[in-house]
Each structure stands twice: as C-alpha cells, then as structure tokens.
What does this fold into?
Amino acid sequence: MYEMRAECDPAKPDFVLMWHALPKDSAGLTLCGRLLPPSPAVVKPQDAPTDRYCPPCIALVGQAMESTAH
It folds into this structure.
C-alpha cells in the first residue's frame, strides 16, 4: 500500500502542491527519493490554486500495480 502526501513544490514560483507516493512504512521517503516532513502539508483549497503529481512517483505506483495485476 502507498500513501499520498503533498509538499509545496520548491521549483514553482507560485504556491503549488506536489503530491508524492510513499510506502506505508517509509518514514517519509518518497518513491522518487525525496524525504518529506513527518506530517502532511495542511493547506486550504483556496491557498493552493494548483496541485500536481510527481511523475516519477506516479510511474512507480503504476508499475507496481501492473506487476500485481498479472
């Protein structure tokens, strides 16, 4: 199982949330190798006009789902 956790995307000048995938027992280490803080970002919808998914994290989740489906 995976957990989705958001962080403020440091590469974007505007406030953008970047969603990462983490294994449930990862202690904050994402599938793409980032270390996130222990608690998820708390953001009101009006504060974050845009959110995105981390392409490497989502690709790895997709690969894991494909391999378990076969």
Summary: The longest helix spans residues 55-69. The first strand starts at residue 2 and ends at 8. DSSP finds one helix and three strands in the chain.
